[in-house]
Amino acid sequence: MNGKTRLLITWIIGIIIAIALPHFVGIVYTNVLVTFMMDATFALTINMLLGFTGLLTFGHAMFFGVGGYAAALALTHIPGFPLIGVIFFSAMAALLLGVLVAPLLARVTGTAFAMLTLAFGQLLYVICLKFREITGGEDGIAGYDTPPIHLGFVNIDITDPTNFYYFALVVLGLLTFFMWWLTKTPFGTVMIGVRDNALRVDYLGYRVKHTKAVVLIISGTVAGIVGGVYALFHNLVSTDGVLTIFVSFYPLMAAYIGGVASFFGPILGAAVLHILDELTSRYTERVDLVNGIVFILVVMYAPFGAVGIWWSIKARLFKKAN
Amino acid sequence: MNILETRGLYFDYHGLEVLFDINLQIEKGERHALIGPNGAGKTTLFNVIIGGLIPRRGHVIFKEHDITRATPHELFRHGIGRSFQITSTFTRQTPFQNIRSAILSKRGIRFNMWSLVDNLHDVTKETDDVLKRLNLYAERDFPASALSYGKNRSLEFGMAVASDPDLVMLDEPTAGMSRDETHAAVELIRTLTEGKTLVIIEHDMDVVFSLADRITVLHHGEILATGAPDDIKNNQQVKDAYLGETEV
């Protein structure tokens, strides 16, 4: 059995498990799985910037939030708005925000980039907090109808947790596949080049700023779609839920804990965080404290995260085998 | 015909004058060396030409384009390749991936988000050809950080010439190399810049005299002499200022 068939079999088993899972774990954990998938995909969008282009962002919640608000506003004000329209609307809103902020953000690097994303993120947070007439301020927007999936003659009601799980699985799975594909294209190699040595990339004829802007816009748009899925899932979009600094930090933690050096690391990180949440909340309310300690330990002792630990184990086994 | 010209370049670092009225003329197809004692302004001149330093006065002309204020990616697209004095490759990537980045850019494949890069067989083939010419094919898939110093310098040089530029600018390509490595590097530079124009900054006089068709000597920020290697060797001014110390 060669590597390709083994990979194919792994994927088929994975997909079968993903499809079967909600029938075994019950409604509560089906919903936990949906939150996990959203966090994981959101963490992947951050890792496109952090792990693949070398850009640390503290304000990615702005894209997530704008996507969420766009979905909520469309569903509140336009009667009978279709589901595909919600996704499209979220994407377009985040894309627009990306086109607005990317030209400025692409000019700076390092700490300045991180601080500027933080500034834009907080700016949007305050704007949404103050524009009560449109955004509902702290209370947010709630109580809109969730449209069903139209499939010709049948309508699938996604307010049912299992159905929503499948809906999220397909949408977020496609987004993940798209991001993974992107890292394997020529553009993906330019992203990695910018991370490793931006000056050399410039002398090789690539426009570094344009590249960074495009990555930012793509990453933001995908984050916006995840925000739209969030709006459909929670039926509530508020500044505290989608725009606070913690919304930006959570996927960053997931990316670091899972491993920024690999594509799938952030998914693993999101899984670790969710399992940790689940376990610690049984004993204490100080979930964030435990998360924080784990984060510090990872940064200090395993800078490449869980994936990095796995790599070093594999390297050691390989040495022993030889 | 001149492929590269500097016209009346003046440059100062916040008032400290470094270059005075530099008029350099590089002919198409020649191998031109810039030499001079430490502090003569060689590296500054190099950086004014292609390294992002803007002169106080004067212009840099390449193939009839004014490139005085051109950005690095514009220089590449005009057909200029450069190497760095301190090796500046993608150390976390393999030599193959390093060279492939140059090949992709040369072919204008810069924002392609739909094809898998490993499936671009033309690009793979051309990259492999370049690696073979650089004697790096055996190290094709090692991380660049694991290569020896000499191999890394070859890769550095390779990234300057992989895109088949008209003008190759090399900043001390043999710095820090052993005698044998230097010999190999000179041969490599000679074969891979065949038919191209080469401008090289170099301290090693053996390298300079075995490689260059013409030499420009810089001294205190001014051009002291320009000419064929033999003329430079016998130039009394140059001997007094520079070569005399090293006994050529």
Characterise the protein shown here:
Chain A is built from 14 helices and four strands. Chain A has 322 residues and is mostly helical. Chain A has one domain. In chain A, the strands form two sheets. Chain A has a two-stranded antiparallel sheet. Chain A has a two-stranded antiparallel ribbon with strand order 2-3. In chain A, helix 11 crosses helix 12 (265-280). In chain A, 46% of the residues are buried. With 248 residues, chain B is α/β, with parallel strands linked by helices. Chain B is built from nine helices and ten strands. Chain B has a six-stranded mixed β-sheet, with helices on both faces. In chain B, strands 2-1-4-5 form a four-stranded antiparallel β-sheet, covered by helices on one side. Chain B is globular, with a radius of gyration of 19 Å. The two termini of chain B are 31 Å apart. The chains are: A mainly alpha (322), B alpha/beta (248).
Quick synopsis:
Chain A is mainly alpha-helical and 322 residues long. In chain A, 77% of the residues lie in helices and 3% in strands.
What's the average pLDDT of chain B? 92
The CATH superfamily of the domain at 1-79 and 212-248 in chain B bears the name P-loop containing nucleotide triphosphate hydrolases
Strand % of chain B is 25-35%
* N-C termini distance of chain A: 22 Å
Shape of chain A: globular
What is the subunit arrangement here?
Answer: heterodimer
Radius of gyration of chain B, taken over Cα atoms and rounded to an integer in Å? 19 Å
Strand content of chain A: under 5%
Number of strands of chain B: 10
**Low-confidence stretches of chain B at least 5 residues in length (pLDDT < 50)?**
none
Number of helical segments of chain B? 9
Question: How many strands, what sense, and barrel or not for the largest sheet of chain A?
Answer: 2 strands, antiparallel
Query: How would you spell out the order of helices and strands of chain B?
Result: EEEHEEHEHHHEHEHEEHH
CATH class of the domain at 1-79 and 212-248 in chain B: Alpha Beta
CATH topology of the domain at 1-79 and 212-248 in chain B, what is it called? Rossmann fold
